[in-house]
Amino acid sequence: MPTVDQAEFTRTMAHVPTPVTVVTTVDAAGRRWGFTASSFSSLSLDPPLVLVCPAKTASCHDAFVSAGQFLVNVLAAGQKEIAGAFARSGADKFAGTPMEPCEFGLPGLAAATARIACTLHEVLDGGDHSILVGRVESVFLGGAEPLVYHNRRFTKPRTSVTLAATS
Predict the structure, then answer these.
(1) Backbone φ and ψ of 32, nearest 5°
(2) Which residue ranges make up each domain of the chain?
(3) d(CA 12, CA 151)
């Protein structure tokens, strides 16, 4: 079976629009951790599960694996700077970012378009990333347009389409 070139795979995946999220947690010592994730998806309705995928090399990786809870903040279209701040390594990601205690007391963004509070359900191997499966315990829905990552840039959805269920 032929091997897919990593650069070609990366270029191809850049054309798949994804939501931009900032995932946060607090470790046992009370330290806040967070990272920008575009690897986020719903997984199951029964039970309600989502997945998020931090890189195994990320400084926050072990904190998320051991914390037991995490909060997914779905960024609003005007929150590009926050996405950039939480994508950097080595800096205090929370400095200058308007965070407040939200669900489970986890650091959250009040202006997020949605928040999804989870307990850690399972950790799976995902190559150079871990797959954190979270059981959804609480949700918050704001009203802002979401921030989307597409073709290596942040954007907002161009149009909204509502699909009606048919029987």
Answers:
(1) -85, 140
(2) 6-151
(3) 9
Query: For residue 114, what are its two tokens?
Result: 């949605």
Domain topology for 6-151: Pnp Oxidase; Chain A (2.30.110)
Residue 160 CA neighbour count, 13 Å, CB half: 5
Please give the model's pTM, rounded to 2 decimal places: 0.86
DSSP character for 44?
A: E
Residue type, 52: V
pLDDT tens, residue by residue, 3-25:
888 888 888 877 766 789 999 99
Beta bridge partners of residue 69, listed in sequence order = 119
CA distance 7 to 5: 6
pLDDT of residue 159: 56
For residue 4, CA distances in Å to 7, 11, 62 come to 9, 12, 30
Residue pair 57/128 in contact (Cβ under 8 Å)? The answer is yes
The label of the residue with tokens 């802002």 reads 144
